[in-house]
What we know:
Blueprint: E1 5-10, H1 15-29, E2 33-38, H2 48-51, H3 58-76, E3 80-83, H4 95-108, E4 113-115, H5 125-141, E5 157-160, E6 174-177, H6 182-189, H7 199-215, E7 224-229
This protein binds zinc ion.
Zinc ion binds at residues 11-12, 15, 42, 46, 123, 126.
Amino acid sequence: MPKPTALVVSAHSADFVWRAGGAIALHAEAGTEVTVVCLSYGERGESAKLWRRPGMTLEQVKTDRRREAEAAAQALGVADIQFWDLGDYPLALGQDALFRLAGVYRALRPGFVLTHSRQDPYNHDHPAASDLAQHARIVAQAHGHEPGQRVLGAPPVFLFEPHQPEQCQWTPDVLLDITAVWERKRAAIECMAGQEHLWEYYTRVGLQRGVQAARNSDRAITYAEAYEAVFPHVVARLA
Ligand SMILES: [Zn+2]
């Protein structure tokens, strides 16, 4: 039996840590092989602290960001992290990236997919990454795309929490208990030295969502991550 797999499509090289680190660690611990595709390093738009160092260059920022993301991926138990280096602010996505990602879907056959919200007025790369992730999934399902290959099924897509949910028209309908792997997520967060100002912020987000997850269940939950499901949940029973 091949191992179960999951795909995370991250616009920049740190997004998967803040927004989906708990889900990644939780499933990796349970034996899922998680692939993370970082479309860019976030070298221009999400590396303010690195740019304050004297003599910084774009290449050096990319190198540092890659090192941080690789360390975070290791802390979370990611099986494969890919850096596509497509640039940020703006993220340059064309048909090559679309077909490349469709190929990843077909090769991996993920059990679920995590990516960004559909909207984000503070960051145009995030919705672009979400659109690419969702579009590539549909291309991979198309029988006329690379005929002869096995087409993709229907992996559920969950949109992870944007920085300011209300402005992004993002409404969580899935709360994932990540209490058991919180220490791993926090360790991964602390790998992101270039964005230290977000460490405590995303710890608070985890606690807030934990309270909500406990309120919506009868379980003792301290930390949670929130997601918005793109497609209906298909279940065999309601309880
Ligand atoms: Zn980002």
